Amino acid sequence: MRSLPPFFLFLLASSTAGTVVAAEAPAASTPEQTTPPPTGQRPQESNVLTIEPLTDQGTVTQDLKEGISYFRYGVVVRYRSMELVANQVAMSESTGDIIADGNVRLQNEGQYWAGEHLEYNYKTGQMKGENFRAGFAPLYVGGLSLDANINAQNYDAQQTFFTTDDVKDPAFRIRAKQFRLIDGHRVEARNATVLVGDTPAMVLPYYSRDLRKHDTFWRFTPGYRSYYGPFLLSSYHFPVMTNVMGGVKLDLYTKRGVGVGPIFDWNSPRWGKGEFEYYYINDNDPRTDPFDQPIREDRHRIRFSHQVTLRTNLTAKVIVREQSDPYIVRDFFETEYRNNTQPSSFLELNQLWSNWSLDFIAQPRINEFYDMVERLPDVKLSGLRQQIGETPLYYESESSLAYLRWQPGSLLPPGTPMGTDYSAMRFDSFHQVVWPQNYFGWLNFTPRVGGRLTQYGETEGVNTTFDESTRFIFNTGAETSFKASRVWRNVESKFWEVKELRHIIEPSINYVFVPDPNYTPNELPQFDREIPSLRLLPIEYPDYNAIDSIDSQNVFRFTLRNKIQTKRERGIQDLLQWAVYTDWRLDPRPGQSTFSDVYSDLDLRPRSWLGFSSELRYAIKEKEFNGSYHTVTINPNDTWSWRLGHRYFRGGPEFGPESDNNTITSSFYYKFNENWASRITHHFEARDGTLEEQYYTLYRDFRSWTGALTFRYRDQRDRSDDFTIAVTFQLKAFPRFKLNDDQNEHSFLLGS
């Protein structure tokens, strides 16, 4: 009998410990899961009214006759998305009425209110306030009295001012005797005065404005790049008809030429939403590809997408990505290229029923320079897991019929022969029965048994030797798991921001057995093949979907998950999430070891402003790390933050040449004052000591809009260095980029 390695002894010990915990705290052995919010976000909405004191001196008294409760010395009231904080509150739960006094703060779905006295009904959203300030971006209001309905976003105020300048002392504002906000997007003011600072600039008996995004607008990004020379990226957008926007993109590059093309996007409740863009440039300096071959001067690309719901549960989606060469997106649309280096085109239809799903996909090759499997078409019927009559058994299935064609691309070094294209019909049908069981109220055990039949037609193509074949697969196995927890209610630490602790442990073992099929993968055409991955691939069907690479399996997958939670200001938060998993292959295939790499995924948040994440991949046989990715995020306040990361990967031939990585990244943000801030980002490759990429950004807050000046320098080793400087602007009310886009994808600030 094989002896278990120390790691598995640790797993078994942890499982035993989890059982003991469950015995000590039986009420929590199968806890209800509370999903904590991401850091910096509000807790998940709840329909339950919750009231918590803010200080140890907080008191509550009740008038049973009147049905009113009185809370003093600091209290926070939460209901759905509403959060109200005040020194003292009188509340009737039966009617929903609240009277709050002293440092009152109300937040509800992006709307904010602050004042000294508030009358509010949390059920209807009706409110009255005095001497207040309020915000519902992009509008900020302050005044003497307010009568409003938050749910309908209707506000009536007297003796007030309003502005879109989100600072304490706005540069401009409009003062009015009467003010109304209608449906959250239209402002009306009477007897209004426009103030620049404290100086009256204009008197308006009546003022009205729509706060929604204007239909006609320009976008500009001026800058300089060593590959482009001075450039100006611009686009003009305008309405074409109801629900349809048009535009023209005009990019001027002194070294490369003029890039131009139309833009359309639409969004109709009946006909669906989509976009179309055509871009053309006669490139004066297209340079060369990675193999030093010239790139054509006449360059273009087309993007088209449309998605529509044809009827209930029937959706259609079509995407077309066509381009003159594989490098036009890299050269002129860098952000898009980083997200998807080889875009595909397809038509997809999906019909969903309660227990079944029917998918139709047609995927031709539009760009001949990319490797691709064409599906002309591929139709799949999926049986979602469903109970078989009144039995305890459940059934699931996937059956597909497809005409498939493998098309090798032409992105090869000069003189390299292209691969062989081949095609065949394929019918595949998988069926499985599972039997979920629960023992002792805490142990889950789910055995399964299934089978798969795959029929291949005769393969067509040059130098192909695959004849008609029928492959049979039998699979069986079982998964067992349990979840145990324990709560320590007396644990408290102000330094670690801990108030109570809950530990949840969830070990699981998944066993899969697949005997040798009558055809091995090298005897079949490979369309849906196994793709090298940095993570463990699924071992059970139908999650494992490399249909043509299916081979024998006799494997255990061991997983241990731990979670530690605590209560913090923003609700329940995870202090730690840790998952460790690996495979024990009882009968390894050629090229496999008995034990796979051990994987560890860890997220640790010891303070609300400090986070650490870790991904590790350790080879047991070689006793070395094959990969790691660590990040530390420090965000103590809104003045500065720092994210430091390290990625290490031991590459291999399956991942291509020079796939090794040993990269250190750093992104530091500092806010000098209310108007100025900066970010510095570095990417350092430790393998050869190269500082690959540097970003330096200076932000300027112009009250109603923001600007950013960005400088980037890239060391491309054997090619000439690339440096870029660009200026971007955006209105706060209608931002050009989403929150943190400039941090996660720096090239946004370069306009590409």
Provide a quick synopsis of the model.
The chain is mainly beta and 752 residues long. Helix content is 5%, strand content 58%.
Proportion in helices: under 10%
Structural class, by secondary structure, is mainly beta
CATH topology category name of the domain at 50-210? lipopolysaccharide transport protein A fold
Under the CATH scheme, which architecture of the domain at 50-210 would be assigned? Sandwich
Mean pLDDT: 85
Record field, number of beta strands: 43
Total helices: the number is: 4
* Poorly predicted parts: 1-45
Note the beta-strand portion: over 45%
- How far is the N terminus from the C terminus? 60 Å
Question: In this structure, how is the largest beta sheet organized?
Answer: 26 strands, antiparallel, barrel
What is the CATH top level name of the domain at 50-210? Mainly Beta
Could you say which overall geometry the principal axes of the C-alpha atoms support?
globular
CATH superfamily of the domain at 50-210: Lipopolysaccharide (LPS) transport protein A like domain
What radius of gyration results from the CA coordinates? Answer: 31 Å
Give a verbal description of the structure.
By secondary structure, the protein is mainly beta. It has a domain at 50-210: Lipopolysaccharide (LPS) transport protein A like domain (lipopolysaccharide transport protein A fold), CATH 2.60.450.10. 5% of the residues lie in helices and 58% in strands. It is built from 4 helices and 43 strands. It has a 26-stranded antiparallel β-barrel. The longest helix is centred in the N-terminal third of the chain and has 19 residues, at 6-24. It is globular. The two termini are 60 Å apart.
